[in-house]
Amino acid sequence: MKQGDLVVRKSYGGDVLFRIASLQQQSAMLKGTDYRLLADSPVDDLAVVPNPEHSGAARMARVKEYESLQRMQEQRMQQAMKGEEEQRRTLTDTKHPFFEMPGKVLHLDGDANYLKKSMQLYSQMRVPAHGVYVHESQMAETVSRLLPQFRPDIVVITGHDGVLKNRTTNDLYSLASYKNSQNFVNAVRIARDYEKSRDGLIVVAGACQSHFEALLYAGANFASSPGRVLIHALDPVYIAIKSSFTPIKETINLPDVIQGTISGFDGVGGIETIGKYRVGLPKPKTLSGVKPTV
């Protein structure tokens, strides 16, 4: 057994597929391959999975991921059709085609593999996004530095988290009971200091089992995890995409966006928030035929 191996925990019935992040004597640090969970485990409790496609946990995660992607694409198509009809009615006098301006995303991720998946999905859904891989402990400093530089409409602050097994207190309302919730809270506070209005900057924060209430009170619009459950790697991305394509004249439909995630109401929650999608006139033209005048 070595770093990078795919494994499951025997004592948990192989419910989650992990990759070994590091090994230390008889203990291993694990990162979920589909869920934003960071865990440690005795090496003798681990079983190597040579082919992840043969893992029931991995197959189920892939099915849920596919279903979520299908919902995103269907909703985007419906919105595009609705938007075209509305713009035809609103702009009928101009007879000019309009252009779209979805909200811009800054995505900070504590996992390089998840970041890659997230950026692929933003690109697939045509959401302008900039992604940065940064350790959870450095997120507050990174948010402070990057927000003025990229001036996003939406910032995603995510990575790995989890309720500590050997915690000093059984109080799940204490930030000390979580692996990285305090780091996420610190980053959310910096983001909210940068932009006080929750409609001026949409903040999506948290990972598996994160302290939902603390993240919301720190200033997040959407956060995980109300039921302290595992959330899928792409759940924060789904919320960011939904925020990016919800018109500024509308409030993001909370039941719709939460039900659209893989984790559902136990995994993600949020507050009323105005969308970031805009349209404009006229649609830019090809300027190859423009003649200089000076």
Tell me what you see in this structure.
The protein is α/β, with parallel strands linked by helices and 294 residues long. It has helices at 56-90, 112-124, 139-150, 181-194, 212-218, 235-245, 254-260; strands at residues 6-9, 18-24, 27-32, 38-42, 46-48, 99-101, 105-109, 129-133, 154-158, 202-205, 222-223, 269-270, 278-280. Strands 8-7-9-10-11-12 form a 6-stranded mixed beta sheet, sandwiched between helices. Strands 4-3-2-1-5 form a 5-stranded antiparallel beta sheet, with no helix packed on it. It has a two-stranded antiparallel ribbon with strand order 6-13. Helix 3 (139-150) runs parallel beside helix 4 (181-194). The protein is globular, with a radius of gyration of 21 Å. 43% of the residues are buried. The model has no long low-confidence stretch (mean pLDDT 87). It holds the Pfam family Peptidase_U57.
Tell me the fraction of residues in β-strands, as a range: 15-25%
Q: For the residues shown, what is the average pLDDT?
A: 87
Number of domains: 2
Report on the biggest sheet: 6 strands, mixed
Which CATH class of the largest domain? Alpha Beta
Overall geometry: globular
Q: Biggest sheet, strands in spatial order?
A: 8-7-9-10-11-12
Tell me the helix content: 25-40%
Distance between the termini: 71 Å
The gyration radius over C-alpha positions equals: 21 Å
Secondary-structure arrangement, i.e. CATH architecture of the largest domain: 3-Layer(aba) Sandwich
> CATH superfamily of the largest domain, please?
Response regulator
Tally of alpha and pi helices: 7
Low-pLDDT regions: none
Number of strands: 13
Helix/sheet category: alpha/beta
Order of helices and strands: EEEEEHEEHEHEHEHEHHEE
